[in-house]
Amino acid sequence: MKLAVVSVVVLLVIFVSWPVSAYQKDSPGGGGYGGDEEHDTNLWFPLDNLLSLSYYDKICPDFEKIVDTKVREWTKTDPSLGPALLRLLFHDCGVTGCDASVLLDHEGSERRSPASKTLRGFELIDDIKAELEKSCRGLVSCADILVAASRDATYQLKGPYWPNAYGRRDSKTSYARDVEKVPSGRRDVTALLETFQSYGLNILDLVVLSGAHTIGKANCGTIQSRLYNFNGTSESDPSINPELADYLRRKCRWASETVDLDVKTPVTFDNQYYINLKNHEGVLTTDQELLKDPRTAPLVDAFATQPSHMFRQQFAVSMAKLVNVGVITGEDRIGEIRKVCSKSNSKH
């Protein structure tokens, strides 16, 4: 137990003292998208994938502006698209890497998998791509669009801003069977941690990126087993706060219904998610497991008790790592820049 406490203290020192200056410098109006010098970006991620913060500065200078404008237009009409874009990005990066494979729409693709049926935001990405093709024809990948749009949507929800390096290529292939790699709402912490480690992410990244559940909704079909017949008992999961369990049972009579992942502040990007976990108000099994596991529980407690901006700053750092997972670059012959995000160029 002493070791766990010491580890949390060390981690708190890291995420309190290290990301703050980088976050302030790289936020809009804080000195540019990546700072003035290349070495500043190393505080966020090693640029070992031939990605660059200035990739589109000359070849498509309006890239960031077009993405931001389109995201604002769409989310103004449908605010739920913000969390949906972030989820779409997680499902893309969590399968074969951040390569836009989730956007391909054909028989047997990730997008056609039953596990992807509730994903949304495809039309927004298509609209951004069509607009960019008018001014930057054949230059901007769908993978970069998804990364940028998800970041902008998060920021518009009062979440953190992080600098993105660009230059990704799009995957030419997509297989529904690969969707099994995406963490489900019923996996335990060990399985989740193994998945994150395979991405090159650590236990801190696991806990902080789970905090994305401070916004968005869950499909009732993913939690009904906790509510109506937990482990064959005909009762609810005893780890759920009884009042919350009663509320969820009334809301989730149909699997197709949805409920907020953060039952207290569902449209605010804050640390309430972690406070909810401490009150046994985690909606997904994987959420509540973070409080049960001795490896992650101290981090949950730290994020629940620290000011909310600490969580947002660390979320930015972990996201900057996530969007570098498994990228395809110009040196890789297996990638392309799609003309249409839902189709590979060979089938267009």
TrEMBL record:
Binding of substrate, residues: 183
Function: Removal of H(2)O(2), oxidation of toxic reductants, biosynthesis and degradation of lignin, suberization, auxin catabolism, response to environmental stresses such as wounding, pathogen attack and oxidative stress. These functions might be dependent on each isozyme/isoform in each plant tissue.
GO (cellular component) term, any one: extracellular region
Protein name: Peroxidase
Domain spans labelled Plant heme peroxidase family profile: 50-345
Residues that, per the record, bind Ca(2+) 2: 214, 262, 265, 270
Domain of life the protein comes from: Eukaryota
Family (UniProt): Belongs to the peroxidase family. Ascorbate peroxidase subfamily. Belongs to the peroxidase family. Classical plant (class III) peroxidase subfamily.
Entry's EC annotation: 1.11.1.7
Native organism: Thlaspi arvense (Field penny-cress)
Site, as annotated: Transition state stabilizer: 87
